[in-house]
Amino acid sequence: MTPQERLFVIAKAIELRDTADSMTREVLYKTIEDIGAHGMFSFRQIASITGNKASHSTVSRLVDKSKKTGGRFNPRHLEDMRDLIFRNSVNRVDWDKIGKVVSEGTSIDMVVKLTGLPKTTIHRKASLGQILQNS
Q1: Rounded CA separation 20/31 (Å)
Q2: CA distance 43 to 57
C-alpha cells in the first residue's frame, strides 16, 4: 500500500471518528465499507473508531475480511499515524511520537501496518531503549 493510500484511509477514519454521531445510518455504513475495503483495520477497530455507534457485528456484516488486521489500537492516534507517514516520506521518523503512541496503547504491529515503517527497525530502537515500548 502506498503512503497516499494509507493517508486516504486514515483521513476517512478521522472523519468517521469525528462525525459518526452526526452521520445518517446510510453514510455511516458507506464510510465503514470504504475504510474496511482497504484492510487496514479489524472489525473491532472500526467499531471503536465510530465510538461504537456501529457494533463489531454490524461492521462484520458490512466489510469482507481478507487478512489479519488485529492489534491494539487507540483511535486518538490517527493524527499521529498520519504525521508519521508524512515524516517517513521525507526520512524524518519521529521516534518519540512512536514511543508515545506505543506507551499509550497502540501496538507496534499497528504502527507498522498503518505507517509502513519497518517493524525490525522499530523493535531494534525499542530494544536499545530509544523509544518506549509497551508491547
Answers
A1: 9
A2: 8
- Cα(25)–Cα(54) distance, integer angstroms: 9
Structural domain boundaries in the chain: 3-62, 75-127
Query: Which residue matches cell numbers 497502540?
Result: 106
Burial class (CB in 10 A: 0-12, 13-18, 19+), 127: exposed
HEC per residue, 59-126: HHHHCCCCCCCCCCCCHHHHHHHHHHHHHHHCCCCCHHHHHHHHHCCCCHHHHHHHHCCCHHHHHHHH
How high does pLDDT run on average in the chain?
Answer: 89
pLDDT number for residue 123? 84
Question: Distance (Å, rounded) from C-alpha 12 to C-alpha 8?
Answer: 6
Residue 135 to residue 133: CA distance in whole angstroms: 6
